[in-house]
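Note to self: keep these together.
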Amino acid sequence: MNIRTALIRIARASATTAALTLLTAATTTATHAASAPNDPATEGTMFVDAASLPADELHGLDQPIPYAEYAGSHGSKSMTRKAAADPAPGDQQDLRQQCASHAAQAKAATGWIKSRFESCQKRPFDLVLRDVRGTTTLGRLWFDQWVFGFAYDGSRRVDYVASIENIRVQPIPTEDATKWRLGQHFRDDIYASTSDPDPQVTAPQTADRDELLGVWDTSPHWSLTYTSPDKGALFDQGNQQRVFSTVAMDLSASSPNAAPFTGGGSVYDSSVRYDYAGKIAGKFKGTVFTKARVELVMSQKDPAVNESAQHIYDALNHPERTFPSWPGKTVPGTKEPLHRLVDKEKQQKNRARSIKECEKVWGDYKGTDLQCDEYPFASTKEGSTKGDNRFSVRLIDGDDNETGGRRLDQMYTLNRILDGDAFYMKITN
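Structure:
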């Protein structure tokens, strides 16, 4: 069983529980609002980010209690976690560990984007419940938010598996943390100005989950699927059915009579592109995370492409060693991206210009095993005819040059790099 199958299977089971509890959640919230007594210690409360408070206001609130332990000690039988009630899928651990090892990136709103098809967010939260006057601190709430994203090469679909885990609390004795709630609220939007005609996205039927802490503690995972309808192959007519979209999530935190938590807007943000671009993309249709950094990696120790790799390394790091030569020359590919060019006629013009430069420097090399290697590649918009002379040519072994070209084409199709899409170079020793 692969990681995506395991994630979606278990998360969908949890989503069923989530759907059943949504109505209960809404009813419970209304009941709280209608029946809660006018207790000055709880009325007009709100959760705030602990980082926004001075350290002296957090004094004594440094002993987090696992929620299941707290609920059990407060006689909340229904909220006590059962053994293996809803464990994290075992096959999820590799991606979880990778996500955790990129902690700084993973806690950002975009999360850690592993590839054009996988992303992960692990975002820790530390909230303090206090009255709106800021005079009384009523407790502290810690938890981790996880969001896994999966796009697909071959399908106009993206899946998200979200969860709230590792819940810990420390309320004052008069506060009841079993009545605290957390919510995840997903929303999507389409960038019509950059999309192809008639862009559409179908959102999941349930995009909100608002629960008591105990429900999250026993059933942390739920899933959402977004799709974009296609009309069959229209790429030969110039319509790649590209839909540029975002999926964002707002977090809510509340207790009875609490004011809205104002720090939970857009705590997760994912940028997606659906397309039906046809054969230039490899599989005819698919979905990608557009903010992924795509790199073509080549090694100077790889005998199949070591001459290509050395040439690119010199162009990026020692452009003074490359031709054409001019003072202050720089070549894009590391800090500045390259962009794919699919126009065959323009590619041929790039090649012709590069060969002319090779012949200018090395003369007639016909009849040898050498070929004119060019960087940036002829299949990029930064090729030799761009007009800024920020390119390099070098005679290298023909087999090496052709192998490098095949690897470039593989990178394009494995990552669904369409015309104008950005990518970077990475040369290793």
